[in-house]
Amino acid sequence: MSNRQREIKSFFFSQYFSDGLRISAGILIPALGMMQLGHFDLGLTLSLGALCICTIDSPGPATHKRNSMAIGSICVLLVAIITGYARMNVYALGLEITVFSFLFSMFVVYGNRAAAVGTASLLIMIFMLGKDEPGNEIIPYSLTIFAGGVWYMLFSLVFFGIRPYRAAQQTLAENVTDIARFLRIKADFYRPNVDLDENYRKLVLQQIQVSNHQDAVRELLFKSRLVVKESTWASRILVLTFIDLVDMFEQIMATHYDYSEIRKRFVGTGIITDIADFLDLLAEDLDNIGYAVLANARPEKLSNIEPGLEKLKTKIDAIGNDQTVASNIVLKKILINLRELGKSINNLYKYYHSKASDGLLDTDSPEVEYSKFVSHQDYAPHIFWDNFTLKSATFKHALRVALVCLIGFITAKNFALGGHSYWVLLTIIVILKPGFSLSKQRNYQRLIGTIGGGLIGIFILTFIPNKDVQFVFLIVFMLGTYSFLRLNYVVSVIFMTPYVLILFKFLGVGLLNVAQERIIDTIIGSTIAFVASYVIFPTWEFEQVQQNMKAVLTANINYLQKIAESVAGRLVSVTEYKLARKDVFVNSANLSATFERMTSEPKSKQYHIKDIHKFVVLNHILSSYTANMASALVRNMPQQPHADTQKLVKRSIAVLKDTVAKIDDVIVSTDGPQIEPPKTEPVKPPFTEAQPTPDEMLMKEQLGFINKITVDIAKITETILR
Fold first, then answer.
1. Which parts of the chain span the membrane according to its record (predicted)?
2. Which of 160, 595, 648, 672 has its CA 20 to 30 A from that of 280?
3. d(CA 554, CA 160)
4. pLDDT (tens digit, 9 = 90+) per residue, 293-320?
């Protein structure tokens, strides 16, 4: 199968298409069903309720989906009733828009799912602006919308309940593909013609993708297991695959070398290109496994890894015997890492072709371990009130949304065309994000998508008059809209605009008038949102990058602390190591994401951008070497304590703690409580020490390099803080 065919099939097997199919069906069924019964208007109202609630239907455990959609349905009902009566007075309506825009934008403090509830509430407020219902019809109309929301909630939960682990399987498959891409980027470090700095940037960007999907799998898989309190064969295979994937990612992260030096020493031998090709071969195997997991099939091996390893070994041995070439020790280390990586990939294949996985999980109390690896959202009321300060980015965002929606409402009342002026507010709501860079990106995508989609819609309705064909296009565009909503927003909007135009044509509204009105209203809303994101309580990434730096350094301190305890003779559990590793990877991804958003902001706001990039790269190198050491310590527990190794690791921790203290001194505002470096009691070593083994000498060398990296991080941090 060619890569192009695999990509196309992967899309149709993916959670994105599955979401698009579910959402489209959930919205269409009420309208089509009621149309058959002669109550099309009632069906449209039910579909409107489903349309609002579908925004909350993001991937996650069934209980979270149920609770959020139930709360969202109640919020939608209340907002629909209030808006229905408020629209009878323009001043009351303006006040309601301002207050609700602020209130529901503040829901962001409770996480993405709560933010989606706020978005659903704002959507129904905007849609109700275009409904001229008499006073005695407002409550029945709002209850019908509520019924549509409840219908969608039940439909989605049934859809999810049929195959409860399918969403986790799809997200896991994406994670496999992400790691394959990460491995290919690693392979490029061995290609002499690839720029190292640019490749590091690609690497940290891909790390964001890997981290996000790993978090999504944890949410879907571990929380679902905690809810059902059982371990089926399907879930066992998914858990084993995911655990091995996380360990494999650590392996890949841990294999860091001085690539510039390797290129200089071995470029003439051709070995580094062979290593890159072999890594690409392993990545192809991972892609094959990812596709099989996505397609719910058993993956078949693409190639035998052993012959490739033997060829590399023969060539590396030949280089070692060549007196004109430098020592091949580093190449032997790379070969060992490649063997370990090959074993991990072979293990993944075995899970799907044998019963070896049976009994590997303790199903008596899985929540004891797994519950530690998933986050738990705190919904305490004080979190909401604690953010009522201009030091909070969320509070500034909510104020900005409220003011801009009021401006948009006034503008739409005075300048917008036709009877769909609420499109101005709709554009503002979907474009405005907490950060400038995200708002800028969404603005561009919305404009391009609306104009491009508008032209497609006009072409179809002008040159294809057959209503049956137009209805088929309506279904296709609807599927495309919701399938690409999380995958590629600009493509989603390109599908959305002709979908809306064809829908309005079926409802008897003029084609060119609607197309012109939608494009102009989108331009008005986009312009207002763009200007507002720059001048009204703007939030720039440099304001929070120091918090991200502090968080990642604190996570590294905790990771190094586990190593310190281990080399001091204390038995550190694998779970403790993995939790520390998870914190480092998650916080590193957050820092990388902040840096990437910073690069799309105005040049005047990109303070110390080059130094922050160096910090990101140094942090990646530090976490790589720390992961390498942790992996070795886990394999060789318990350790005999040695004073030299303890001094080195304590010195590194002290440097990082001092750096965190300096960041604390300059942080003026935070969005939450201060992150304190972990405080642990030092472990006293025994009075006698054994002589160090060769492995322990190597550990001492690695700790020395880690110490050098921490000093470099401290220096670059001082430059950033100036």
1. 21-40, 68-86, 98-126, 138-162, 398-416, 446-464, 484-507, 519-540
2. 595
3. 38
4. 998 888 888 778 888 899 999 988 888 7
Tokens representing residue 661 in the block: 């203290």
User: Helices marked H in 37-165 — which ranges?
Assistant: 40-53, 62-86, 90-105, 112-128, 138-162
Q: Which helix (H) or strand (E) holds 304?
A: none
Q: How many domains does the chain have?
A: 4
Which amino acid, 349? Y
pLDDT recorded at residue 132 = 79
Alpha helices for 467-510 (secondary structure H): 467-483, 489-506
- pLDDT tens by residue, 278-299: 999 999 999 999 999 998 888 8
Q: In this structure, is residue 498 part of a structural domain?
A: yes
Average pLDDT, integer, range 425-451: 88
Mean pLDDT, residues 443-453 taken together: 91
Choose the final residue of a domain: 511, 537, 563. 537
Band of pLDDT at residue 570, cut at 50, 70 and 90? confident
pLDDT at 365 over 60: no
DSSP labels, 60-97: S-HHHHHHHHHHHHHHHHHHHHHHHHHTTSHHHHHHHH
Residue 713 structure tokens: 């991080």
Residue 682 carries which DSSP code?
P
My answer on whether omega of the bond before 638 falls inside 30° of 0, hence cis, is yes
Note the residue count of the chain. Answer: 722
Same domain membership, residue 445 and residue 421? yes
Q: Please report the pLDDT score of residue 372 as a whole number.
A: 66
φ/ψ (deg, to 5) at 385: -75, -30
Residue at which a domain ends, from 503, 537, 571 = 537
**117 & 207 share domain:** no
CA angle 207, 237, 358 (to 5 degrees): 140
What is the Cα–Cα distance from 52 to 73, expressed in whole angstroms?
9
What is the DSSP track for 374-425? S------HHHHHHT-STT-HHHHHHHHHHHHHHHHHHHHHHH--TT-THHHH
Percent helix, percent strand, percent coil in the chain, to nearest 5: 75, 0, 25
Domain of residue 603 covers 542-679+693-721
Q: Quick one: DSSP state of residue 220?
A: I
